[in-house]
Amino acid sequence: MNQIENASAETVGSYLCAVSNILEERWSEAAEIEIAPPDQQPAPTLMATDKVALLIGNLNYNNHPGLMAPTMDVHELANLLQQLGFRVVSLLDLTLQEMQAAIDKFLQLLDRGVYAVFYYAGHGYEHSGRNYLVAIDAPRPYRTENCVCVQKVMHNMQNRKAQLNVILLDTCRKWYKQKGPLSDIKPSAPLGNTVYGYATSEDAEAFEVQDGGKSTGIFTKYLNKHVLKPERVTHVLEQVSEDLGKDPLVRGRQVVEIRHTLTEPRALTDPVRTSGHTMELRRRDACWKQANVLPCRRSLDFQYCGVKVELSFSALFSNVLVVFATVRNSSAMAQDCTLILESEPQMQDIFSGSGRSEEMDSLLVNSGETPDCTLRLCCLQRLQGSLVIKVTLHYTHTQTKERLTESKQLDIGRPLIASCKLNQMRPVDRRQESRVHTVDHMSNIRYPHHQNHPRPGRPYTRKAENRLQSSAKSTSMSSNEPEENDEND
């Protein structure tokens, strides 16, 4: 039997088979041979074994101008990524040690087949081709050792063999001339799975603006607009770049830069397939839950007056807990009940500044019913032990008309990121610690609570400031004029 190998278009035609011996020869009927294309196999569906994201927003700097936008930017992006099936850890206002510890914890969630997203909003700069993220406790002037090197983060992500590594930076990239060693980074293997999305190009600033009554980084504004689209992640960033390029506020001042080594059309919307990865998934699930489990709803009975108060909890971020207190039933003995919530230890409220509290209050109002009292507890990563909630009930005794007070306490342990003990994962540099000045106070929010938002205007800069501000310059920061960066310090 004859066999035709490597058939091509030239093979098409009529074929006859001949049989012969010494007596005669016989020919078969002609057979028409055609070449048909192989069945079109559907492209394999790209999948992840898990999807995890770490989002960090720094806004209240000890030695540099404060920012407004990281709060809402991180909150909204976290919600969108959760819709895509990501396990999200979102954190605000981290010191250098806390940033490093959070990144180390994040790396524990990465493994083969995992999609990983690292997002940062805050001050930043570029030095000798490397990008640095400024922690809230960075001194002035800071050096590379006071900041987190982005390229080092990506290198560590690649070492975990994740299937897709995406770094999104809503920060400035102004060149900063400074002395000091560069971060030691070894070259990584060409894995073809990395994506960088920079809010701006080299030696340029990134801006935040007032948009519809809320503060937003202009890069994240358009990122949030497109991130849910089922398209290759680089195509999503290209659409972000196109929209930002049309924005009249930053046209000619801020341009998105995209770098990648993708060899497959992977998208953030790709489904998660967990079969065959049960043990790894359980391990990651336990690690993720450690930073996101909320205290259970609790009821407190004030026996003397017969009033019951319900406490419920919500996480605005992985290190920001909100406690709601609601009087569920009063009694014939108590009238005009009011509540006050306090914590022990008292936790810092990073949203108490003008403009910031109003935005956070809007999130609480949208979350459902209006409680009688709310306590916002921030920076839970700094909690050293258990957190105790003190509920104080003020009421008027029906018969005596006296104004009386009763108190109850509830130990809720280490909620959210506090259970990860980030402050114990790395040794603290006491020289840095001495430069950190924080004011701890508690926040009791009562409703209604309305204040005017800052007026829309020109964009704020999101650069890293490197020089001491005079009082005159500090005054100018209240306007929306971008500041120029002084790189000579």
Automatic annotation (TrEMBL):
Instruction: Give residue spans, biased composition: Basic residues.
Output: 447-456
Compositional bias annotation for Polar residues = 467-479
Instruction: Give the GO molecular function terms.
Output: cysteine-type endopeptidase activity
Q: Which residues cross the membrane?
A: none
Pfam families for this protein: MALT1_Ig, Peptidase_C14
Give the region (Disordered) as residue ranges: 424-489
List all Basic and acidic residues biased stretches: 427-440
Entry's InterPro entries? Caspase-like_dom_sf (IPR029030), Caspase-related_regulators (IPR052039), MALT1_Ig (IPR041077), MALT1_IG-like_dom_sf (IPR033540), Pept_C14_caspase (IPR011600), Pept_C14_p20 (IPR001309)
Q: Where is the Caspase family p20 domain?
A: 49-173
What biological process terms from GO does the record include? proteolysis
Q: Which PANTHER family does the entry mention?
A: MUCOSA ASSOCIATED LYMPHOID TISSUE LYMPHOMA TRANSLOCATION PROTEIN 1/PARACASPASE, MUCOSA-ASSOCIATED LYMPHOID TISSUE LYMPHOMA TRANSLOCATION PROTEIN 1-LIKE
Q: What is this protein called?
A: MALT paracaspase 3
Organism, scientific name? Sinocyclocheilus rhinocerous
